[in-house]
Amino acid sequence: MKRNWLAVCLACSVLAAVLFYTGTSSADTPVVNNAEQTYQLAENAMFYLRVLKSDGTASSTGTGIILSSGGTAATAYHVVKGAERMEGIMADGTVISPIKVTTFDELKDVAVLALPVPAAMKAKGNGFAYLSMRKDAVRHGEAVFALGYPLKNTNIITEGIVNSPDAEINGRSRILASAQVASGMSGGPLIDAHGQLAGIISGSLRTMNNIHLIIKMEDLRSLLPAALK
């Protein structure tokens, strides 16, 4: 009888250990998203960005990324350099205006923006959809996705890898990535396979075909309010 009791206790202990290990493993394993899932995460957290002339026509266009429910956003500085008036157009057609530049760094090519919350969103008590920001550095060969607006009503996603997490380009440290970038995607997000913002699209590298320049998260964080860092 005693031996049977010991055998039962031992079996229960082994089962509990297996269940504990399995549960811990599942909880600690980050979700890996494909391109479709990544697009769904980012679609409502970015916008088509227009810099307007005095006659209301666009002098330049790009993409913006929303970083908080309250409307803190970011883009590449060269998109908004010298801008007096800006507006954003969301995926659902909502126009966000006026957009203000709160801080920028021309060397890093980063600008932080403030978006006004539309009246309809205020009435419903809603905030903006936004992307969570990655804290650790990207790695060689890591899968990434680039998103943005090459056309007003057309946001696209491309897939690639990190070619270099730390390349010195014109005196600035940049991420190099092979996810394709088209004109108008500047300021858009580079997103890792776990759905986190891993960088901001800055442009293309003319000396290397299909290799593109990405602003690092540390350059963005250096301009953000303490609450978002």
Automatic annotation (TrEMBL):
UniProt GO molecular function: serine-type endopeptidase activity
Record keywords: Hydrolase, Protease, Serine protease, Signal
Record keyword Hydrolase present: yes
GO BP annotation list: proteolysis
Secretion signal span: 1-27
Domain of life: Bacteria
A Pfam family that the UniProt record links to this protein: Trypsin_2
Transmembrane segments: none
Database matches in Gene3D superfamilies: Trypsin-like serine proteases
Keyword Ribosomal protein: no
Name recorded for this polypeptide: Serine protease
Species this chain originates from: Paenibacillus riograndensis
